[in-house]
Design brief:
Distance between the termini: 59 Å
Number of strands: 4
Mean pLDDT: 84
Radius of gyration: 18 Å
Number of helices: 2
Helix content: 10-25%
Largest sheet: 4 strands, antiparallel
Low-confidence stretches: 13-19
Strand content: 25-35%
Order of helices and strands: HHEEEE
CATH class: Alpha Beta
Strand order of the largest sheet: 1-2-3-4
């Protein structure tokens, strides 16, 4: 019986050690671009655009309406084994304003 308990503990420890954290837990709102690069490295993609839409579907729904239309957004994209992290810098600010994590295999659909 003790051998079974030890075996279960070993399996649980091994699985928890091999689990990767999703990248969203490694950065916080307010961190600088330099701090983020030290933790995550270079993003796989950077996009710049002016916000023009008032509606968006996905994890950005939480904050999208707080960003006024016309503001310049710089979005850094990172991928990990569980999904994609999008980091939002508003008006060329050096400090992270918003973040959104999209797990793999999740699809957001509009109702329109």
């Amino acid at each position: 019986m003790n051998l079974r308990i030890i075996l279960v503990i070993i399996i649980l420890l091994a699985s928890s050690c091999s689990e990767k954290k999703n990248t969203s837990t490694l950065v916080e709102i307010g961190q600088t671009k330099e701090q983020i690069r030290k933790v995550l490295g270079e993003p796989f993609e950077i996009r710049n655009f002016n916000k023009t839409s008032t509606v968006i579907w996905g994890p950005e729904e939480e904050f999208w309406d707080k960003i006024p239309n016309g503001k310049m957004l710089e979005v850094w994209h990172y991928k990990d084994s569980n999904g994609q992290l999008n980091l939002y810098f508003v008006e060329r600010n050096d400090y992270l304003s918003y973040k959104a994590y999209v797990p793999n295999n999740v699809v957001y659909e509009s109702n329109q």
